[in-house]
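Predict the 3D structure for this chain.
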Amino acid sequence: VGTVALTIYLGGIWIGPRTGVLAGLLLACWPSQIEFMTVLSSETPMLFFMLAGLAAWCARGWPGWTRALVAGVCFAAASYMRPTALLVPVVVAGIDFIRQPRRGATFGYAALMGFVMAACIAPWTYRNYRVFGAFVPISTNGGVNFWMGNNPASTGGYMGPRPATEFGGEPARDRDLKDEA
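Done. Predicted structure below.
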């Protein structure tokens, strides 16, 4: 329900109210959105937090610093589930930087959003350092996921990686598989 509401809101401010409602209806009836409701997976909450971050960044009537703070928390929450979410704030702020006449303010709000995200992610990064003995901002699966679809033996189907113990730990496996892909 929250994801549908955020879709309606964002569609409404980006394109128009009718488009927002249509997008919300399509999302509410989309088979994968219905199917994933009963499955514990990262896709559903990640999408919610991503849309919440976009809605906060684009919110009308909110002061810029409030938008940056809320968006930073939401984007950090999304990145905990899917680290690729770390790229979205850069793109969103970059688009605003190009489009907005007040580039200095946009840069300042983007920096604040980045600081908030870093503060929210820092405890997990510290935990990873303690566990792995290496700098791992969020996860050790970016290179592994890249390898699953882009390695020399890839057929388009699921390919499970070799155990981390064969590489000397998770960070090493992630790095080596990314290099192989």
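The chain has nine helices and no strands.
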